[in-house]
Amino acid sequence: MPPMLILGIESSCDETGIALYDTVAGGALLSHALHSQVLMHRDYGGVVPELASRDHIRHVVPLLRKVLSDSGRSLTELDAIAYTQGPGLAGALLVGAAFAEGLASSLGIPTVPVHHLEGHLLSPLLSKRPPKFPFIALLVSGGHSQLMHVKAVGEYRLLGETLDDAAGEAFDKTAKLLGIPYPGGPALADLAEFGRPGLVKLPRPMLHSGDLNFSFSGLKTAVLTKVHAIGLPDDQQRADIARGFQDAIVDVLVQKSLRATEESGLKRLVVAGGVGANRELRRLLDQQAGKAGITAFYPELEFCTDNGAMIALAGALRFQAGKSIKPAGAFVVRPRWPLTEITG
Ligand code: KG4
Ligand code: ZN
Fold this sequence. Notes:
The chain is an alpha/beta fold. The chain has helices at residues 38-42, 49-71, 90-107, 116-122, 167-177, 185-192, 217-230, 235-264, 279-291, 309-320, and strands at 5-10, 15-22, 28-36, 80-86, 111-115, 135-140, 145-152, 155-161, 268-272, 295-297. Helix 2 (49-71) runs parallel beside helix 3, helix 4 (116-122) packs across helix 10 (309-320) and helix 5 (167-177) runs antiparallel to helix 8. It starts with a strand and ends in a 24-residue tail after the last helix. The model has no long low-confidence stretch (mean pLDDT 97). The protein binds 5'-O-[(R)-(carboxyoxy)(hydroxy)phosphoryl]adenosine and zinc ion (ZN).
């Protein structure tokens, strides 16, 4: 297949991301731009869907202009436009999808609707040291926590998933309990670095459940109980609790991911999604994986959380595999959409 130039648009939640990817010579990300709405939603303690949609509308064109001018390429050179079709907030998805379909229509090129989690899953392929297929993937974002067997692009088998809160959600909710503003996950991780190890002991939910599922909502309750027992925790106590929480969640994620990899007989483990940016998760995983002869792969830090680059990449790979290309025009978005539905 001749090289192609593809635009990627991400707008599933509170980040507008646009990127330009060229498949020439093994693939190159030419430019990418991101606008995060985090500060806008902070006052409300979480994402306000209507505000999110409006903000995507405000930023999609300026970001596109930036990506084109940074790369020195023009719209007429595009071969296809990929965009996040779901899962996510319906209104937010509609902005990216309608913009992509309209632009592609005017240019007379096809579109590639992409599953947001497939974008996360394939994002380590953008790194300097990309993994080869097949691999096991730990997908840990704000809305999902799953272990997947990834055979090739579009061939995914679910091995286990969270029965309640996602890992990122658990980080965010626990942060809120400790008085850290939304989205508290990264700040909670920073606070945990000042915590003393082993001082606050929390349970390791479902570590010995015999399957590859997770459950994180109990951890939040355990933290709440600790906070109530102390009354008004001081800074050191808050850091100790953050440390206890992070150690518990990281321990479960690492042990279950390595178990999944060992059971599969594979030697490659990919970590993707926002929580994949967590330093302690990376440290412990590298250490434990090394002992088991397994290599862990991560996306670059900037591509752990939502971005347009992973959507452009997933779109390019799907296009090249002849999957999900469609003529521009009519479209649907899929706010709820299991990743396993796109397999095959
Ligand atoms: O993948 P992502 O950007 O969005 C979704 O698709 O959900 O993930 C966002 C999640 C949030 O819950 C955020 O708190 C969490 O990832 N997160 C982290 C870190 N950075 C982002 N959690 C723990 N440690 C971090 N360093
Ligand atoms: Zn995401």
